Amino acid sequence: MGDEYFDVDNFHDPDHPYYLYPLDNPSLIIVPKQFNYSGFRGWSRSILFSLGAKNKLEFIDGSFVKPSSTSPLAKQWERCNYMISSWLLNALSPDIVDSAIYSKNASQMWDDLNERFGQANVARWYRVQKDLSIVSKGSCDIQSYFTKVKRLWDELDSLSSSGCTCDCTCWGKEKAQKDKKIQN
């Protein structure tokens, strides 16, 4: 986006990242469940979806740094940052809020949460692998069984974020696809 888009007059455009809707307020709950040390990856994806829908992702990924205090954009950036910080705090359990509330801005808060809770969990990866190896259709219908298996594979993919992403010859992607076919 060109600098002209960040003109103060464009703040009334709902597509502008600094725009706040009339119903946006600091007490807004943007995800259905507070993070309480369990399920960080799913919770963080919900946060990303919600902030993406509100056109506010740039505030937590570091794309929008605070303008200089003499800029006419500084006040609006601060308002958005305070709002997003409040939304993040509302999405955390009270004891996690106590450690996150003193972050300088929403981006720092998000980075800190990811650093503390977003690391690949080897124990969880092992547990998902084990669950995949013992899952059976049992008495549930085929849709329920497939949903359970797909959820486990999706979680395993998420936990294996450091996996092979290149076009190398290690066959990592091919092996993962074969494993999925065998499971199904």
Give structural notes.
With 184 residues, the chain is mostly helical. It has a domain at 25-137. It is built from seven helices and no strands. Helix 2 (74-90) runs parallel beside helix 4. It is elongated, with a radius of gyration of 21 Å. It starts with 39 loop residues before the first helix and ends with a helix. Pfam families: Retrotran_gag_3 (PF14244). InterPro entries: Copia-like_N. Residues 22-68 form the Retrotransposon Copia-like N-terminal domain.
Characteristic terms for this protein:
single chain, 184 residues, mainly alpha, 7 helices, Copia-like_N
Order of helices and strands: HHHHHHH
What proportion of the residues is helical, as a percent range? 40-55%
Number of DSSP-assigned strands = 0
The outline comes out as elongated
- Strand % is under 5%
**Helical stretch tally:** 7
Radius of gyration: 21 Å
Poorly predicted ranges (pLDDT <50, ≥5 residues)? Answer: none
N/C terminus separation: 45 Å
Computed structural class: mainly alpha
Biggest sheet: strands, sense, closure?
Answer: none
The overall pLDDT, averaged over residues, is 85
Pfam families: Retrotran_gag_3 (PF14244)
